[in-house]
Amino acid sequence: MNHKKTYNAMELKTAKGSLIIEGPIPPDELSRLDFHEDLVAFRPPAQQHKALIEIAGLPEGRIIIVRDRNTIVGYVTYLYPDPLERWSQGKMEKLIELGAIEVIPKFRGASVGKNLLRVSMMDDAMEDYIIITTEYYWHWDLKGTGLNIWEYRKVMEKMMNAGGLEWYATDDPEISSHPANCLMARIGKRINNENVQAFDQLRFMNRFMY
Fold it and tell me: Which keywords describe this protein according to UniProt (predicted)?
């Protein structure tokens, strides 16, 4: 499959300064930018920066960033699901995962996440994919935001909706383990019925188990 990537960008004015949201960014460009020390949600900043550079080098990998001058202050990643996850079991070429989204605390509440997703979807090639994201409450920064589980879930859902992702039912055990966890997806305009059916089979793998 030809994983076409078309660069898009926008300027976002916030109370704390203007930001550039842009991507997909190639690995060499990512390596030249500084990575903000407050991007700690998934692993230490230096390691996460390295991980983003690696993802950007994958044929299907896409990194959209938020930049404050020369410093990355937020990002979203898209790549094939982890081989250990159920979502990779169908070996679907047209299914990619929104794996991580993060914005530094300084710029939270300024619709940065929503606009990251909007810029991601400006690329027409996204219509060739089913894009999924799995939301687990134990990854959420409840302490830093002061929100409870349901308030945070609402914020996450609204943000994902800005990128066209909607809630989908699934019998995945991890997602089903807590009612706040959820699967969200966006089905591209050029996705055929065969791919939709394959996705449905991945969503409900325990249907016939008694």
Answer: Acyltransferase, Transferase
How many other C-beta atoms can be found within 10 angstroms of the C-beta atom of residue 96?
Answer: 23
Query: Which residues is 96 bridged to in the sheet?
Result: 131
Give the DSSP H or E segment for 29.
helix 27-32
- Give tens-digit pLDDT for 52-103: 999 999 999 999 999 999 999 999 999 999 999 999 999 999 999 999 999 9
- Gap between the Cα atoms of 25 and 30, Å rounded: 6
Domains in the chain with CATH codes: 8-203 (3.40.630.30)
Report the distance separating Cα 141 and Cα 123, nearest Å: 29
Angle between helices 149-162 and 112-120 (to 10 degrees): 30
Determine the 3-state secondary structure of 108 from DSSP: coil
Condensed to tens digits (0 to 9), the pLDDT of residues 131-167 reads 999 999 988 888 888 999 999 999 999 999 999 999 9
